[in-house]
Design a protein that fits this description.
- It is a single chain.
- This protein is 18% helix and 25% strand.
- The longest helix has 24 residues.
- It contains 14 helices and 24 strands.
- About 2% of the residues have low confidence.
- It has three domains: 97 residues, Immunoglobulin-like, CATH 2.60.40.1120; 182 residues, no CATH class; 172 residues, Immunoglobulin-like (Sandwich).
């Protein structure tokens, strides 16, 4: 018994020493302050990890030191402060992290920094963030101010520069100012203080040419859903630093452990950040860009799935968004690639991304002399309606049944509308079996359709799009010929950025984007 008792005593003592040693030598302790007062509620993190805590009411914190690391960088952040950090080792005493506040007043004299590499501008984004820069450069954000299709739609010209070609906002409202600049040329709109003053086609200079660029996006501190005709830059608040401040630069982002001129804001991971441009209500009451309101009413909002979760989903390839390169003052750290959002922002220009939003199923069966076809299209991953965005985007379901080399006649079911293309081109599908999905605008006076959403007399004629997590079901019947041979039924779903007639008139090169296709062969 004495030996057994002695064993338990030794075991308990060893356990106590082990616990003491673990806390004493494998934890990091410290204080976060502003140099005078301690800061409670600051987020403290071992950089580039999920190992984090929050300072207590005395500004104190304690973190576990990773067992496989001899030194780490401990960072701290709180709202209205720059992120800062200190190196900690296993033998470091208290880690004191001092946070500095940034100027809470926007500097209207600030000169926007262009993203492209410039030896005279060391803070140009490309210098340190080449990979992120290339992603942004491939996005529609980078071309928002200079996109030819956008400019030609506003001015009423075609791809060759010929005037008077509809659709055209300036053709419908000659000389009238419109708020397009708020989203397409945001920094120019901010400089003038009015989205209506800046118009597509105006001479732009400097960063205004770069559209929705890095420095603009990373200066936003508040965003509002636009509801008063001032979209984009006039529905956000930006914080441009003063040259006279201790830190004459400020970048806001989605990470709370980037040490330097940076701060963190939860807004950057929320759909609200996208609302100023993607919830644009025209003066005629038309919701020109409805993506945010559609997301708001969808199950995704209830589930906490934000716009960025799909449109800025990490590629899983980038592990350091500021790797060492010539000319860099600071070098980034290696991170989990699933924590670095893509800046490519895929959307309707990415066929793979677009196709992933829907799931199409087809079932064909024969009943006597009739072939019945049922097609279901489910919006499985679109956080808003499909299609969405500017109203001329449309999706077409084409259904075709062929037997013995002959196309069977439709006896029951819908046919594609006129906007699918009237004419004799191989891609003119109006009147053929299928269904169109679009938000079609009509002039309430002339009854012309489709028309631009910017007209004062525009109203919504129909909206056949598929809301998030909902399914459209279409049924078609075809007449079988006598002595019918096996029938091949094909259901094809395509997407078009523009109505066929508009693209033809404007001489835009438009390719049908395949979203889904099902083929089934059946014997009568």
């Amino acid at each position: 018994m004495r030996i057994k008792a002695l064993f338990y005593i030794i075991f308990a003592a060893a356990l106590a020493v082990g616990i003491w040693w673990m806390f004493e030598y494998h934890t990091i302790q410290g204080i976060v302050s502003d140099g005078r007062n301690r800061i409670p509620g600051a987020v403290v993190r071992i950089q580039a990890t999920t190992n984090s805590t929050v300072t207590d009411t005395d500004g104190k914190f304690r973190l576990w030191m990773p067992f496989d690391r001899d030194s780490v960088i401990v960072t701290a952040w709180k709202d209205m402060f720059f992120i800062n950090g200190r190196t900690a080792t296993r033998t470091t005493g208290l880690v004191n992290i001092r946070l500095r506040t940034f100027t809470q007043e926007d500097n209207t004299f600030y000169e926007w920094v262009r993203p492209h590499h410039d030896p005279d501008q060391p803070l140009a984004c490309q210098t340190c963030h080449e990979d992120l820069y290339q992603e942004w450069l491939s996005s529609t954000h980078a071309r928002s101010a200079t996109n030819p299709v956008f400019l030609q739609t506003f001015l009423g010209t075609d791809a060759d520069g010929n005037p008077g070609v509809h659709p055209g906002a300036q053709l419908d409202h000659p000389g009238m100012s419109m708020p397009c600049g708020g989203c397409h040329m945001p920094t120019a709109a901010i400089e003038y203080g009015d989205a209506y003053v800046v118009s597509p086609g105006d001479s732009l200079f400097g960063a205004d040419l770069d559209g929705v660029h890095c420095d603009y996006c990373h200066k936003i501190v508040k965003a509002y859903p636009n509801a008063e005709g001032n979209p984009g830059a006039l529905s956000v608040e930006v914080m441009r630093p003063s040259e006279n401040s201790a830190f004459p630069q400020l970048f806001v982002g989605s990470l709370d452990d980037v040490v330097g001129r940076d701060t963190y804001l939860p807004l950057y991971t929320e759909s609200l950040y996208c609302a100023p441009c993607h919830h644009h209500i025209e003066e005629n009451g038309i919701l020109a860009y409805p993506e945010y309101s559609e997301w708001l009413a969808s199950p995704y909002n209830d589930e906490g799935i934000e716009c960025q979760d799909c449109h800025m989903k990490p590629s899983g390839k980038m592990t350091n968004f500021a790797p060492a390169r010539p000319g860099m003052r600071r070098v980034g750290v290696e991170r989990d690639p699933m924590t670095i959002p893509t800046h490519h922002t895929p959307g309707v220009h990415d066929s793979t991304f677009l196709a992933s939003a829907v799931d199409m199923r087809m079932d064909a069966s024969v009943a006597g002399s009739v072939l019945n076809v049922e097609v279901s299209i489910a919006n499985v991953y679109g956080g808003h309606h499909v299609p969405s965005g500017t109203p001329e985007r449309n999706m077409l379901l084409l259904v075709k049944a062929v037997s013995g080399g002959q196309t069977l006649n439709l006896s029951q079911g819908s046919v594609l509308p006129d906007y699918a293309g009237l004419g004799t081109d191989a891609t003119d599908y109006a009147g053929t079996p299928g269904k169109g999905f679009a938000r079609v605008m009509m002039d309430s006076v002339t009854h012309e359709m489709p028309v631009g959403w910017w007209r004062n007399t525009t109203k919504i004629y129909e909206d056949t799009r598929i809301p998030a997590r909902e399914t459209d079901l279409s049924r078609f019947s075809f007449e079988l010929t006598k002595n019918a041979q096996p029938v091949t039924v094909t259901a094809t779903l395509i997407f078009r950025k523009h109505y066929k007639a508009w693209a033809d008139a404007k001489k835009w090169e438009q390719h049908d984007m395949l979203m889904a296709q099902q083929v089934q062969t059946i014997s009568p």
